[in-house]
Specification:
heterotrimer, A mainly alpha (about 120), B mainly alpha (about 475), C mainly alpha (about 150), A: about 120 residues, mainly alpha, Helix Hairpins, 5 helices, about 75% helix, elongated, B: about 475 residues, two-stranded antiparallel sheet, 19 helices, globular, NUOK/Mnh_C1-like (chain A), cell membrane (chain A), membrane (chain A), NADH-quinone oxidoreductase subunit K (chain A), NADH dehydrogenase (quinone) (non-electrogenic) activity (chain A)
Chain lengths: ~120, ~475, ~150
């Protein structure tokens, strides 16, 4: 059980890092999503215990630890929020830059920075 | 206890309300500023309580600690919360005076204050993470403020790198729970002693990496220059003056406060990384032309001092780290805000900020530098002292390069206006300079009458040393 | 599966199922909130159930047509903010009474007013707030990402 979740977490992290190094921003976002899932799997794998819900501990029998469940749920919610935010951000980048390739953003942005800066500055005058 | 709850409730509720309203209207901007001022007032009351009677603690729902979530205000947390709210207030005022260009900005600034207060005033590791994400989400959206190409690119870089940092933090939280079976900071600090050293150090490194990314320390700084230089000046001020406090606070709270033994073991590494940060940031800042970019590299150098002080440790080192974080946040907020306005008054404010960064007497930076020097002398390392002096000299050099380029050649100054920040082109008009001047006066006042600041940072350091010694075996 | 005349996109089955699922999803959500204190469920799960139904609807018929068919969806931002306020109020009202935040009324061992199997307490109103928040946020997100205001240049 622990080995399986550990392997799953490692796989998710590896795949996520691979995607993170890609040039397309959409893949970068997917990579971040995978890494967030890796963190959640780690929480579950590191501390989840099986048993009854601990609402009434007097009944006896093994209880499950509610804390990792709460942690995983909260982390999922936060992960969903940040993922949606990132996607919206990438969408706006595509609108503004006309591309979702990381390297092209740089080219679009800084073609011989100083000259452009001076020219445009003159225009504002 | 009421003040503690209110310090969360006021910015949270008001922030939600302000996000709905149209922030481009001037009244809404001022409402945001008033909310932040009210938050500062509540925090001031809380700080008075804390400094008089010691830490204020509250467990949610009235549960026993360990079941409910612990909210705790001690000298360290309150100091950072107050500091961040002051920086946010200055940024909100500056932005309102210049004219807000996006409807959600005042609300986001206030929500950021709520998130930061939450994380500075919690005694629970996971609750820290939740508020941390809350403030980071507000910060991600703020980074994209302006909506220009450069801002959007900065927002994507900032968000993706810092999310990675957040998930490393989450992994470290999972590890902490695994090895100690608790998430209340006090209990973690106690139980981490019985944990096998390898596991403990692995978890501690996770936290260290997460906070270093946030702070932009030397090996983790790669995202910082683009982001700070390409966002709007007031957002850069918020990022470097308020959001970066998360990193400094986290290093202090989780370092000496929780993983005291691990910090002691890795003191050399911390000092070396800090010194590398100082030199790297200083040298690269000298080589930059755009003021915003130079300030960004300067930010990397300045946080190095905090890390050096943490590495040296002991009451002197921790007090120096707190003091320097406070000073640095105010310096950076002032300097970034000056890039948005022009005029002789602003030039004067810039000089105050520059002197403060370099650690020249009338400004408060001197007090901060002095504290770090004292800790370096305490550590008995001449090399370190020399490095710190070199760092200060470099900062004086690059800041006066900026000054010369920006303020001496006032007439042809507009020719150097940056392409991306054209929409934020230096604004004229006396009222717009008020936030900058007030911050400068604050820095000068702190330098002329440093006793309160020194006392507060000593109290904050006491919190850390007490938690390391008090719970000792 | 599709014959050549039907437009590309989801089949008629998906569209019909998506529309039919909306009402049951709300029923399931209410059950999740009400049962959340002794069985599995809470405001977030309930919100996600409704949110998924809304998302399926948006995928099946498109965000604009979904909004036209169900004008309630236009109020999603208000629902989100209102929900956040309800949740905040249920969490922070004890401040006025001088108690720690998130103390719930009626407290442990106190008499609870119940309507059927639903027990009225502030914890439930907190979950209702979270439910509204989640539904609102998911709806706004899905509709924004499905049919954004500005179309990217092609």
């Amino acid at each position: 059980m622990t080995l399986a979740t550990a392997a799953a977490a490692a796989l998710l992290f590896g795949a996520g890092s691979y995607l993170l190094l890609q040039r397309s921003l959409v893949r970068v976002v997917a990579g971040i999503a995978l890494i967030s899932q890796c963190a959640i799997v780690t929480i579950i794998g590191s501390s989840l215990s099986q048993g009854r819900a601990p609402l009434d501990p007097a009944e006896g029998g093994p209880l499950s630890d509610p804390l990792p469940q709460a942690l995983a749920l909260t982390a999922l919610v936060i992960g969903m929020g940040t993922l949606a935010l990132l996607l919206a951000l990438v969408h706006r980048v595509v609108v503004a830059h006309g591309t979702a390739e990381r390297d092209e953003l740089r080219d679009v942005d800084r073609p011989g920075r100083d000259e452009v800066v001076r020219q445009e500055g003159d225009e504002t005058e | 206890m009421t003040a503690l709850s209110l310090s969360l409730l006021v910015p949270w509720a008001a922030g939600l309300l302000l996000v709905v309203l149209d922030g481009r209207r001037r009244t809404v901007g001022w409402l945001g500023a008033v909310t932040l001022a009210a938050t500062i007032a509540v925090l001031g009351l809380l700080a008075a309580d804390v400094l008089r009677d010691g830490a204020v603690e509250m467990v949610t729902g009235g549960w026993p600690a360990g079941v409910g979530i612990v909210l705790r205000a001690d000298a360290l947390g309150v100091t950072f919360a107050l500091l961040s709210c002051i920086v946010l207030l200055a940024a909100a005022c500056a932005e309102t005076l210049l004219g807000v260009g996006q409807r959600t900005v005042p609300g986001l600034l206030v929500l950021l204050a709520a998130g930061l207060n939450g994380l500075f005033l919690t005694g629970d590791v996971f609750n820290f993470y939740v508020f941390f994400e809350m403030s980071m989400i507000a910060a991600y959206v703020l980074t994209g403020y302006g909506g220009g190409r450069a801002q959007l690119r900065a927002a994507v870089i900032f968000a993706s790198v810092n999310l990675l940092g957040s998930f490393i933090f989450l992994l470290a939280v999972a590890g902490t729970y695994r090895v100690t079976g608790t998430l209340a900071m006090d209990d973690v600090a106690e139980r981490i002693r019985e944990v096998p050293p390898n596991a403990a150090i692995a978890v501690a490194v996770g936290f260290f990496v997460a906070f270093s990314v946030k702070l932009g320390l030397f090996p983790f700084h790669y995202w910082l220059p683009t982001v700070y230089a390409d966002t709007r000046p007031s957002v850069a001020a918020v990022l470097s003056g308020a959001v970066a406090n998360i990193g400094a606070y986290g290093l202090l709270r989780f370092g000496p406060g929780v993983f005291a033994e691990q910090i002691r073991l890795s003191a050399t590494v911390l000092v070396v990384l800090g010194a590398a940060s100082i030199v790297y940031g200083g040298v690269l800042a000298v080589a930059r032309r755009r003021p915003a970019e130079m300030l960004a590299y300067s930010a990397i150098g300045q946080v190095g001092y905090v890390l050096v002080a943490v590495g040296v440790g002991g009451p002197v080192g921790f007090a120096a780290a707190v003091l320097y974080s406070v000073v640095n946040a105010l310096n950076k907020a002032l300097l970034f805000l000056t890039t948005a306005v022009r005029g002789p008054l602003v030039a004067g404010a810039f000089v105050v900020g520059a002197l403060s960064v370099a650690g020249v007497p009338p400004a408060v930076g001197f007090v901060g530098k002095l504290a770090v020097f004292r800790s370096a002398v305490d550590a008995g390392s001449p090399t370190l002292v020399v490095l710190l002096v070199v760092g200060s000299a470099l900062s004086l050099l690059y800041l006066f390069l900026v000054y010369q380029r920006e303020f001496w050649a006032e007439e042809d100054r507009d020719a150097v206006t940056d392409a991306e920040t054209r929409d934020t082109a230096p604004a004229r008009g006396v009222s717009r300079r008020v936030p900058v001047v007030v911050l400068a006066v604050l820095l000068l006042a702190g330098g002329l009458w440093p006793e309160p600041l020194v006392a507060v940072s000593a109290a904050a350091a006491d919190v850390l040393t007490a938690s390391t010694n008090g719970a000792g075996p | 599966m599709t014959d050549p005349e039907t437009p590309p996109g989801p089949t008629v089955i998906v569209r019909v199922v998506a529309r039919l699922l909306l009402a049951p999803s709300v029923v399931v959500a209410v059950a999740l909130i009400v049962k959340g204190y002794t069985k599995v469920g809470d405001g977030f799960a309930a919100g996600m159930v409704v949110g998924l139904a809304v998302a399926l609807n948006a995928v099946a018929v498109g965000a604009h047509r979904a909004e036209a068919a169900l004008p309630v969806l236009r109020h999603a931002p208000h629902a989100a903010v209102g929900g956040a306020f309800v949740a905040l109020a249920s969490g922070f009202f004890p401040v006025a009474l001088g108690e720690p935040v998130f103390s719930h009324r009626p407290g442990p061992d106190e008499e609870v007013v119940s309507v059927g199997t639903a027990e009225l307490m502030t914890a439930v109103s907190f979950d209702v707030g979270i439910f509204l928040l989640v539904v609102g946020v998911v709806t706004v997100l899905v509709h924004q990402l499905a049919e954004p205001d500005q179309e990217p240049p092609t």
